[in-house]
Amino acid sequence: AERYNARESEPRWQRLWDEKAIFASKNDDPRPKYYVLEMFPYPSGRIHIGHVRNYTLGDVLARFMRARGYNVLHPMGWDAFGLPAENAAIERKVAPKAWTYDNIAAMKKQLRSIGLSLDWSREFATCDPSYYKHQQKMFLDMLRAGLAEREKRKLNWDPVDMTVLANEQVIDGRGWRSGAVVEQREMSQWVFKITKYSQELLEALDGLDRWPDKVRLMQRNWIGRSEGLLIRFALDAATTPAGESELKIFTTRPDTLFGAKFMAISADHPLAVAAAAKNPKLAEFIADIKKIGTAQSIIDTAEKQGFDTGIKAVHPFDPNWKLPVYVANFVLMEYGTGAIFGCPAHDQRDLDFVNKYNLGNTPVVCPEGQDPKTFVITDVAYDGDGRMINSRFLDGMTIEAAKEEVAKRLESEVRGNAPVGERQVNFRLRDWGISRQRYWGCPIPVIHCPTCDVVPVPDDQLPVTLPEDVSFDKPGNALDHHPTWKHVTCPKCGGKAVRETDTMDTFVDSSWYFARFTDPWNETAPTTPAVANRMMPVDQYIGGVEHAILHLLYSRFFTRAMKATGHIDMSEPFAGMFTQGMVVHETYQTADGSWVTPAEVKIEVGGNGRRAVLMATGEDVAIGPIEKMSKSKKNTVDPDDIIASYGADVARWFMLSDSPPDRDVIWSDERVQGASRFVQRLWRLVNESAEIAKTADTKTAPAVRPATFGPDALALRKAAHGALDKVSSGIERLHFNVCLAHIREFANALSEVLAKGDKPASDLAPDVSWAVKEAATILVQLFSPMMPHLAEECWVVLGQTGLVSEADWPQIERDLLVEDSVTLVVQVNGKKRGDVTVPRAAQNADIEAAVLALDAVKAALGGKPVRKVIVVPMRIVNVVG
Ligand code: ANZ
Ligand code: ZN
Question: Which residue's CA lies nearest to atom 31 of ligand 1?
């Protein structure tokens, strides 16, 4: 046969699949559904190799489940709002809309070239008014249901992108996109009340047993539930500004109360503000520490600093015990009550603090086996288990018992009508601020009226569409600068009013697109609940671990909000979640330090290992570490180039074969070439098999299955059905690299049969010819999810009708999976001496003979005669001497 020509074949099959629309799924299909979804792309302009991996993983599963008889839903769309479109408008003077849709067209063409089994009939972009119209409707539903609110709060302001960011979007104190140091500003904004579901979002994680543990753990930590005690400390009147009389703190360690050395409050705490009003030095200190920002990570790493306000707090168990109140840079206003008591012996931050200000420490928990008299803390706080010491009535108790005792006593102690202590559960999770001061996003459908305040846009006036005649001459929000767009009449009173010019965080767009895919044709509602309830949840969602918190948590919340407002009847959108690894590559750097792309470099393998040479000049380049592909290090490969030189199937096969899907895969040209050679090998193998099968059909063997199979045919059939079994269960578990190894092994077994002796193929026994055709057919079906184009071409060669993409998955003949031989344990006088492997059908006499011939048995008998041999079928042989 001629070489397989992917460049000619791949587009041809892609066109045919398209014309026949074989991947379109129907909502009234009576078969069980299976919903496979990969995180939809942002239309940046080009597909990168990470996308190819992501979509290939999903495609293998989709094709497999389709062959298994499921009504597979495998849609694709575009996460199309966002800042880059505005940046393009500023830099290149193209309209964000035109830029976005051009990119979509280009990327769609690229996606098609990968041969994905996608249902394009459901495609949409989140910037389509026909999509965001429903998002606006749901916003209004959520407003009515109390799940959306307007709130004034201190916000993270990104001074470069000129927008507010959610806490989740601030990484190490910087904007997740711009990298600029984030500032704090007090502003009004719209929030989604995700905290109403804190407990539920946490608990339901237990049921998501097809999610990676690490993702569930990250969500758990993000939600951050802690059980503790709220304690009202009285303030010593003589030292306290007028109007203030107590300080409320939140602690998870009430057991450590007798180790308290100081109190600390946030710079934003009202008591700090009151004290600063009378103390300019304190005011100056507060202004200073506010400069570093209040992001958690900054606070965790910054040096602990405090300022003694002079105020004293009274210990709740001892009216004569006064504790100094500091303003400290490591206490956050946003958590708990914005105030703490510090117990330095058992909290590292507190210890660093007292060591700096010479406040001392008293250990109150002593580790088991340690003498309390010699137990001292110097630089390292002890946060482990132990017994209470130096703690009056708590002494000798466990931590748990002491916590309980303190809680009980303070709960029942009343000061001024209220208990001094109160048990409380706190969550780190904050409500989701969704207002963005940006043009290219979904408009928030409300109107601000000077008389009526906030007025929702009436349903029949949706969508509120974005104006297209916008200018980006000034920084900030182009919607706000638009001459006419925001000026409207109030729907309630008819007076002059203005539209909300903030748009929604683009994470809102991606929080429900999976539900929209179930019926994107519905013009009047976001979903058709009966359809959404049948097609959801997504059975297998696949995407990067970078979305483990934000996108996945928002989607879980939004699905609950849709449930509360009647758009769907379930809480969890993703039954199965898979986080794929990245595609990584070596880096190359010339002597002058500039990065060069893999395409410019030739790798030479010689005696001294691998060497990289710049092809243009012949100069040596340094091989740097393997890193995530990035533009800055130029270590990227372009999917278009790969597909043009090797074909999509090779790229798919390589990425599936080289490492488990959840790990990083190292892109290597050498190994891609290996995959390419394997494609040609399969092609030859199938062609040779087809030749034999032809002979079998027409000359020596009947087309029907032979009644019996000889040992050679049987061995091949066992290899085929064994591979079928292993690959089938492997795909279900996304163990693709293992599946590919089984396919290779099976291809080898088939090759060996074809290569046996130098007999012409027509001389193969009829049962063997029949088995060869069966094996080749199974082989093609096994690799068809991974290399669908090659598989279609091979399907034709094998004389099969229809498309392999539409064929049913082969039936496994289970009796072929039974092993031929059994291994029995051999004992002499009850003691194990070894084992013996015999044919499954062996008679006892044969087994006895085999056992007695074993050297280990002879040695154990030491020349003594054998009295008896007992065979326990399939398990043990005991020789009695
Ligand atoms: C006394 C104490 C003693 C504490 C001890 C810890 C160890 P989680 O588990 O994260 O909820 N804390 C409370 N509010 C805070 C705030 N706004 N900013 C900074 N820290 C704050 O942490 C609860 C613990 O974090 C609380 O328990 C409090 O310190 C501190 F040996 O109280 B603890
Ligand atoms: Zn009005």
Answer: 346
The atom number, within ligand 1, closest to the CA of 226 reads: 11
How many angstroms separate the CA atoms of 648 and 113, rounded?
Answer: 7
Stretch (H or E) spanning 839 = strand 831-839
The residue whose C-alpha atom lies closest to atom 9 belonging to ligand 1 is: 226
Q: Which residue has 């993409």 as its token pair?
A: 805
Residue 426 CA: which ligand 1 atom is closest?
A: 11
Instruction: Compute the average pLDDT of residues 651-676.
Output: 92
The CA 478 to ligand 2 mean position distance, Å, reads 25
CB 830 within 8 A of CB 877: no
The pLDDT value given to residue 177: 80
SS3 of 514, please?
helix
Q: How confident is the model at residue 631 (pLDDT cuts 50, 70, 90)?
A: confident
pLDDT tens digit string along 525-566?
999 999 999 999 999 999 999 898 999 999 999 999 999 999
631 annotated as belonging to a binding site for a ligand: yes
Q: How far is the CA of 328 from the centre of ligand 1 (A)?
A: 13
What ligand has the least distance to the C-alpha of 488?
A: 2
| Ligand 1 probe mutation, 252, 266, 426, 429, most atoms within 8 A of CB | 252
- Nearest protein Cα to ligand 1, atom 10: 226
> Which residue's CA is minimally distant from atom 11 of ligand 1?
226
How far does residue 276's CA lie from ligand 1's centre (Å)?
24
Q: Are 655 and 583 in contact (CB under 8 A)?
A: yes
CA 459 to centroid of ligand 2, rounded, Å: 17
Q: Which two tokens stand for residue 788?
A: 């669908």
Reduced to 3 states (helix: H, G, I; strand: E, B; else coil), residue 111 is helix
Strand partners, 266: none
Residues contacting residue 656 through CB under 8 Å, at least 6 positions apart? 56, 57, 60, 736, 737, 739, 740, 786
One DSSP character per residue, 303-369 reads PP-EEEEEEEEEETTEEEEEEEEEEETT--TTSTTSEEEE-GGG-HHHHHHHHHHT------EE-TT
Note the pLDDT of residue 701.
45
Q: Which residue has the higher pLDDT, 409 or 764?
A: 409
Distance (Å) from CA 795 to ligand 2 centroid: 69
Tell how far CA 375 is from the center of its chain: 45
Name the helix (H) or strand (E) containing 595. strand 595-596
Q: Residues lining ligand 1, CB < 6 A?
A: 226, 250-253, 256, 330-332, 335-336, 338, 340-341, 343, 346-347, 426
Task: Output the six-digit token pair for 138.
Answer: 């749901």
Task: Supply 425's token pair.
Answer: 């559960």
In the numeric block, which tokens belong to residue 771?
A: 């088995």
CA 543 to CA 670: how far, in whole Å? 27
3-state secondary structure at position 722: helix
Q: Quote the CA–CA distance of 689 and 682 in Å, as a whole number.
A: 10
* Closest listed residue to residue 335, CA positions, set 407, 257, 233, 265: 265
Question: What is the best residue among 229, 248, 251, 364 to mutate for testing ligand 1's pocket, by most ligand atoms within 8 Å of CB?
Answer: 251
Residue 378 CA to ligand 1 center (angstroms) comes to 20
Q: Are 212 and 578 in contact (CB under 8 A)?
A: yes
Residue 681: name the closest of 653, 660, 655 by CA: 653
140 in Cβ contact with 445 (< 8 Å): yes
Q: Enter the ipTM.
A: 0.96
The ligand with the least distance to the CA atom of 299 is: 1
CA distances, 304 to each of 257, 270, 307, 428, 476 (Å): 21, 21, 11, 22, 36
Task: Name the nearest CA neighbour of 741 among 659, 819, 857, 665.
Answer: 659
Residue 394 CA to residue 373 CA, distance in Å, equals: 17
Kindly list the protein residues that place their beta carbon closer than 5 angstroms to ligand 2, a single-atom ion: 449, 451-452, 490, 492-493
